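Prompt: I keep going back and forth on a fold encoding question. Comparing notes only helps if you start from a blank page. Show me how you would write down a chain together with its backbone fold. Please set it down just below, with no commentary around it:
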Amino acid sequence: MADLPIESEPQQALAEALAAVLRPLARLAVARGLPFGEAEERLKRAFVEAAQGITPATARQVSRIATATGINRREVTRLLEAGPVAAAARPRSVASEVFAHWTTARRFRDRRGAPRVLPRMGQGASFETLAQSVTTDVHPRSILAELVRLRLATHDAERDTVALVGDAFVPRGDTLRMLGFVGDNVGDHLAAAADNVLGDAPRHFEQALFADALSADSLQRVRALVTAQWKAMIEAVVPALEQMIEDDRTHGRALDQRLRIGLYAYHAAAAPLAAGAAPPPPAGRRGSKDKT
Protein backbone atom coordinates (compact mmCIF):
# COMPACT_ATOMS: atom_id res chain seq x y z
CA MET A 1 0.00 0.00 0.00
CA ALA A 2 2.85 2.41 0.72
CA ASP A 3 4.03 2.21 -2.90
CA LEU A 4 0.61 3.14 -4.31
CA PRO A 5 -0.39 6.71 -5.16
CA ILE A 6 -2.78 8.15 -2.60
CA GLU A 7 -5.63 8.31 -5.15
CA SER A 8 -5.25 4.57 -5.83
CA GLU A 9 -5.61 3.42 -2.23
CA PRO A 10 -9.45 3.43 -2.17
CA GLN A 11 -9.56 1.48 -5.46
CA GLN A 12 -7.05 -1.02 -4.11
CA ALA A 13 -9.08 -1.43 -0.92
CA LEU A 14 -12.23 -1.93 -3.00
CA ALA A 15 -10.48 -4.51 -5.20
CA GLU A 16 -9.37 -6.43 -2.11
CA ALA A 17 -12.92 -6.31 -0.71
CA LEU A 18 -14.26 -7.55 -4.05
CA ALA A 19 -11.80 -10.45 -4.01
CA ALA A 20 -12.92 -11.42 -0.50
CA VAL A 21 -16.57 -11.44 -1.66
CA LEU A 22 -15.88 -13.32 -4.89
CA ARG A 23 -13.80 -16.17 -3.42
CA PRO A 24 -16.69 -17.92 -1.63
CA LEU A 25 -19.00 -17.25 -4.58
CA ALA A 26 -16.45 -18.81 -6.94
CA ARG A 27 -16.12 -21.81 -4.61
CA LEU A 28 -19.90 -22.25 -4.62
CA ALA A 29 -20.11 -21.82 -8.41
CA VAL A 30 -17.36 -24.36 -9.09
CA ALA A 31 -18.87 -26.84 -6.63
CA ARG A 32 -22.30 -26.53 -8.28
CA GLY A 33 -21.01 -26.56 -11.87
CA LEU A 34 -21.79 -22.97 -12.86
CA PRO A 35 -19.31 -22.13 -15.67
CA PHE A 36 -17.18 -18.99 -15.61
CA GLY A 37 -18.86 -17.68 -18.77
CA GLU A 38 -22.25 -17.51 -17.03
CA ALA A 39 -20.75 -15.78 -14.00
CA GLU A 40 -18.90 -13.32 -16.25
CA GLU A 41 -22.12 -12.53 -18.13
CA ARG A 42 -23.94 -11.82 -14.86
CA LEU A 43 -21.11 -9.58 -13.68
CA LYS A 44 -21.12 -7.63 -16.95
CA ARG A 45 -24.87 -7.14 -16.70
CA ALA A 46 -24.55 -5.96 -13.11
CA PHE A 47 -21.89 -3.40 -14.09
CA VAL A 48 -23.97 -2.10 -16.99
CA GLU A 49 -27.13 -1.86 -14.87
CA ALA A 50 -25.24 -0.02 -12.11
CA ALA A 51 -23.78 2.47 -14.60
CA GLN A 52 -27.14 2.85 -16.34
CA GLY A 53 -28.66 3.88 -13.03
CA ILE A 54 -26.37 6.91 -12.77
CA THR A 55 -26.11 7.77 -16.47
CA PRO A 56 -28.70 9.99 -18.23
CA ALA A 57 -30.60 8.30 -21.06
CA THR A 58 -29.06 10.33 -23.88
CA ALA A 59 -27.50 9.58 -27.25
CA ARG A 60 -24.13 9.28 -25.50
CA GLN A 61 -25.33 6.83 -22.85
CA VAL A 62 -23.54 3.84 -24.39
CA SER A 63 -20.23 5.73 -24.49
CA ARG A 64 -20.65 6.94 -20.93
CA ILE A 65 -21.46 3.44 -19.65
CA ALA A 66 -18.49 2.01 -21.55
CA THR A 67 -16.22 4.65 -20.01
CA ALA A 68 -17.59 4.10 -16.49
CA THR A 69 -17.35 0.29 -16.60
CA GLY A 70 -14.46 -0.45 -18.96
CA ILE A 71 -16.75 -2.72 -21.00
CA ASN A 72 -16.50 -2.09 -24.76
CA ARG A 73 -19.32 -0.26 -26.55
CA ARG A 74 -20.43 -3.31 -28.53
CA GLU A 75 -20.96 -5.34 -25.35
CA VAL A 76 -22.72 -2.43 -23.64
CA THR A 77 -25.07 -2.07 -26.61
CA ARG A 78 -25.80 -5.82 -26.60
CA LEU A 79 -26.57 -5.86 -22.90
CA LEU A 80 -28.75 -2.75 -23.05
CA GLU A 81 -30.74 -4.16 -25.97
CA ALA A 82 -31.20 -7.48 -24.15
CA GLY A 83 -32.53 -5.67 -21.09
CA PRO A 84 -32.10 -6.73 -17.47
CA VAL A 85 -32.52 -10.37 -16.53
CA ALA A 86 -35.62 -10.59 -14.39
CA ALA A 87 -35.00 -12.30 -11.08
CA ALA A 88 -36.90 -15.54 -10.78
CA ALA A 89 -39.86 -14.94 -8.52
CA ARG A 90 -39.83 -17.36 -5.63
CA PRO A 91 -43.17 -18.27 -4.13
CA ARG A 92 -44.05 -17.15 -0.64
CA SER A 93 -42.50 -19.51 1.91
CA VAL A 94 -45.55 -20.39 3.98
CA ALA A 95 -43.57 -23.13 5.71
CA SER A 96 -41.02 -20.64 7.04
CA GLU A 97 -43.80 -18.33 8.25
CA VAL A 98 -45.53 -21.17 10.09
CA PHE A 99 -42.17 -22.22 11.56
CA ALA A 100 -41.50 -18.67 12.82
CA HIS A 101 -44.99 -18.30 14.28
CA TRP A 102 -44.72 -21.68 16.02
CA THR A 103 -41.49 -20.66 17.74
CA THR A 104 -42.62 -17.17 18.82
CA ALA A 105 -46.39 -17.11 19.47
CA ARG A 106 -47.14 -17.73 23.16
CA ARG A 107 -50.13 -19.99 22.59
CA PHE A 108 -47.98 -22.46 20.66
CA ARG A 109 -45.14 -22.58 23.23
CA ASP A 110 -44.90 -24.28 26.59
CA ARG A 111 -44.04 -22.71 29.95
CA ARG A 112 -40.31 -22.93 29.21
CA GLY A 113 -40.81 -21.09 25.91
CA ALA A 114 -40.16 -24.14 23.74
CA PRO A 115 -42.48 -24.93 20.80
CA ARG A 116 -45.25 -27.28 21.91
CA VAL A 117 -45.97 -30.68 20.47
CA LEU A 118 -49.32 -29.93 18.84
CA PRO A 119 -52.31 -32.10 18.00
CA ARG A 120 -52.65 -32.06 14.24
CA MET A 121 -56.34 -31.08 14.30
CA GLY A 122 -58.56 -29.18 16.71
CA GLN A 123 -59.91 -25.79 17.66
CA GLY A 124 -57.39 -25.03 20.41
CA ALA A 125 -53.62 -24.80 20.09
CA SER A 126 -53.28 -27.28 17.24
CA PHE A 127 -51.22 -27.41 14.08
CA GLU A 128 -54.41 -26.73 12.13
CA THR A 129 -55.06 -23.44 13.98
CA LEU A 130 -51.36 -22.55 13.75
CA ALA A 131 -51.34 -22.97 9.98
CA GLN A 132 -54.62 -21.11 9.55
CA SER A 133 -53.35 -18.22 11.67
CA VAL A 134 -50.67 -17.71 9.00
CA THR A 135 -52.70 -18.38 5.85
CA THR A 136 -56.01 -19.81 4.72
CA ASP A 137 -54.84 -20.11 1.11
CA VAL A 138 -52.87 -23.32 1.71
CA HIS A 139 -54.34 -26.38 3.43
CA PRO A 140 -52.68 -27.23 6.78
CA ARG A 141 -52.06 -30.75 5.48
CA SER A 142 -49.93 -29.36 2.63
CA ILE A 143 -47.96 -27.12 5.00
CA LEU A 144 -47.30 -30.07 7.30
CA ALA A 145 -46.13 -32.18 4.36
CA GLU A 146 -43.67 -29.43 3.38
CA LEU A 147 -42.28 -29.10 6.91
CA VAL A 148 -41.84 -32.87 7.11
CA ARG A 149 -40.18 -32.94 3.68
CA LEU A 150 -37.71 -30.29 4.84
CA ARG A 151 -37.07 -32.37 7.99
CA LEU A 152 -38.18 -29.48 10.18
CA ALA A 153 -41.16 -31.26 11.73
CA THR A 154 -42.35 -34.78 12.42
CA HIS A 155 -45.84 -36.24 12.44
CA ASP A 156 -46.60 -38.98 14.95
CA ALA A 157 -49.36 -40.82 13.09
CA GLU A 158 -50.30 -42.97 16.09
CA ARG A 159 -50.90 -39.99 18.40
CA ASP A 160 -51.72 -37.65 15.47
CA THR A 161 -49.40 -34.97 16.87
CA VAL A 162 -46.86 -32.70 15.20
CA ALA A 163 -43.50 -31.63 16.65
CA LEU A 164 -40.69 -29.39 15.48
CA VAL A 165 -37.35 -31.08 14.88
CA GLY A 166 -34.95 -28.14 15.04
CA ASP A 167 -34.79 -24.64 16.42
CA ALA A 168 -33.73 -22.79 13.28
CA PHE A 169 -35.34 -22.70 9.85
CA VAL A 170 -32.67 -24.48 7.80
CA PRO A 171 -34.40 -26.50 5.05
CA ARG A 172 -31.95 -29.38 4.79
CA GLY A 173 -32.01 -31.16 1.47
CA ASP A 174 -33.71 -28.24 -0.32
CA THR A 175 -30.92 -26.92 -2.57
CA LEU A 176 -33.09 -24.41 -4.40
CA ARG A 177 -34.30 -22.82 -1.16
CA MET A 178 -30.77 -22.74 0.27
CA LEU A 179 -29.42 -21.04 -2.87
CA GLY A 180 -32.29 -18.60 -2.61
CA PHE A 181 -31.12 -17.77 0.91
CA VAL A 182 -27.65 -17.03 -0.46
CA GLY A 183 -29.02 -14.45 -2.90
CA ASP A 184 -31.52 -12.92 -0.48
CA ASN A 185 -29.50 -12.83 2.73
CA VAL A 186 -26.04 -12.13 1.36
CA GLY A 187 -27.43 -9.82 -1.31
CA ASP A 188 -29.29 -7.64 1.18
CA HIS A 189 -26.33 -7.66 3.59
CA LEU A 190 -23.98 -6.51 0.83
CA ALA A 191 -26.50 -3.92 -0.39
CA ALA A 192 -26.66 -2.48 3.14
CA ALA A 193 -22.86 -2.28 3.35
CA ALA A 194 -22.60 -0.68 -0.11
CA ASP A 195 -25.26 1.91 0.76
CA ASN A 196 -23.41 2.78 3.95
CA VAL A 197 -20.09 3.22 2.12
CA LEU A 198 -21.58 5.28 -0.70
CA GLY A 199 -23.91 7.42 1.43
CA ASP A 200 -23.08 10.51 3.46
CA ALA A 201 -24.13 8.71 6.64
CA PRO A 202 -24.90 5.08 7.51
CA ARG A 203 -28.41 4.19 6.36
CA HIS A 204 -28.52 0.65 7.66
CA PHE A 205 -27.47 -1.12 10.83
CA GLU A 206 -24.51 -3.26 9.76
CA GLN A 207 -21.94 -4.29 12.36
CA ALA A 208 -19.94 -7.34 13.34
CA LEU A 209 -17.89 -8.69 16.23
CA PHE A 210 -14.67 -10.59 15.67
CA ALA A 211 -12.18 -12.42 17.83
CA ASP A 212 -9.15 -14.62 17.29
CA ALA A 213 -6.92 -16.92 19.34
CA LEU A 214 -9.90 -19.11 20.28
CA SER A 215 -9.89 -22.86 20.86
CA ALA A 216 -12.26 -25.40 19.33
CA ASP A 217 -13.83 -25.83 22.79
CA SER A 218 -14.51 -22.10 22.96
CA LEU A 219 -16.16 -22.19 19.54
CA GLN A 220 -18.63 -24.76 20.83
CA ARG A 221 -19.60 -22.38 23.64
CA VAL A 222 -19.83 -19.48 21.18
CA ARG A 223 -22.27 -21.45 19.02
CA ALA A 224 -24.54 -21.98 22.01
CA LEU A 225 -24.28 -18.30 22.95
CA VAL A 226 -25.08 -17.07 19.43
CA THR A 227 -28.01 -19.49 19.13
CA ALA A 228 -29.45 -18.22 22.41
CA GLN A 229 -29.10 -14.59 21.32
CA TRP A 230 -30.78 -15.35 17.99
CA LYS A 231 -33.69 -17.05 19.76
CA ALA A 232 -34.07 -14.05 22.06
CA MET A 233 -34.12 -11.66 19.12
CA ILE A 234 -36.64 -13.75 17.22
CA GLU A 235 -38.94 -13.93 20.23
CA ALA A 236 -38.77 -10.15 20.66
CA VAL A 237 -38.84 -9.01 17.03
CA VAL A 238 -41.25 -11.38 15.24
CA PRO A 239 -44.32 -10.56 17.41
CA ALA A 240 -43.45 -6.85 17.19
CA LEU A 241 -43.25 -7.02 13.39
CA GLU A 242 -46.53 -8.93 13.18
CA GLN A 243 -48.20 -6.23 15.29
CA MET A 244 -46.72 -3.45 13.14
CA ILE A 245 -47.99 -5.13 9.97
CA GLU A 246 -51.46 -5.45 11.48
CA ASP A 247 -51.41 -1.80 12.61
CA ASP A 248 -50.31 -0.62 9.15
CA ARG A 249 -53.14 -2.55 7.51
CA THR A 250 -55.68 -1.26 10.02
CA HIS A 251 -54.66 2.36 9.43
CA GLY A 252 -54.52 1.98 5.65
CA ARG A 253 -50.85 2.92 5.35
CA ALA A 254 -48.97 2.23 2.13
CA LEU A 255 -47.35 -1.20 2.50
CA ASP A 256 -44.41 -0.41 0.21
CA GLN A 257 -41.38 -1.16 2.40
CA ARG A 258 -39.53 -4.40 3.13
CA LEU A 259 -37.10 -5.37 5.88
CA ARG A 260 -34.55 -8.12 6.44
CA ILE A 261 -32.77 -8.63 9.77
CA GLY A 262 -30.03 -11.21 9.94
CA LEU A 263 -27.42 -12.66 12.23
CA TYR A 264 -24.55 -14.83 11.09
CA ALA A 265 -21.49 -16.42 12.62
CA TYR A 266 -18.46 -17.74 10.75
CA HIS A 267 -15.33 -19.42 12.00
CA ALA A 268 -12.20 -20.74 10.32
CA ALA A 269 -8.65 -21.69 11.20
CA ALA A 270 -6.57 -18.65 12.11
CA ALA A 271 -3.67 -17.67 9.86
CA PRO A 272 -0.35 -19.08 11.10
CA LEU A 273 1.96 -16.70 12.89
CA ALA A 274 4.67 -15.11 10.79
CA ALA A 275 8.23 -16.19 11.47
CA GLY A 276 9.50 -14.47 14.56
CA ALA A 277 6.08 -13.10 15.54
CA ALA A 278 5.13 -13.19 19.20
CA PRO A 279 2.24 -15.55 20.08
CA PRO A 280 -0.99 -14.04 21.40
CA PRO A 281 -1.33 -13.60 25.17
CA PRO A 282 -2.53 -16.73 27.04
CA ALA A 283 -6.02 -15.33 27.59
CA GLY A 284 -6.45 -14.56 23.89
CA ARG A 285 -7.29 -11.22 22.40
CA ARG A 286 -10.30 -9.26 23.42
CA GLY A 287 -13.26 -9.34 21.06
CA SER A 288 -13.40 -6.37 18.70
CA LYS A 289 -16.13 -4.71 16.68
CA ASP A 290 -16.25 -3.80 13.01
CA LYS A 291 -18.83 -1.60 11.36
CA THR A 292 -19.48 0.19 8.11
Q: What stands out?
A: Residues 94-164 form one domain. Strands lie at 118-119, 153-156, 161-164, 207-210, 288-291.
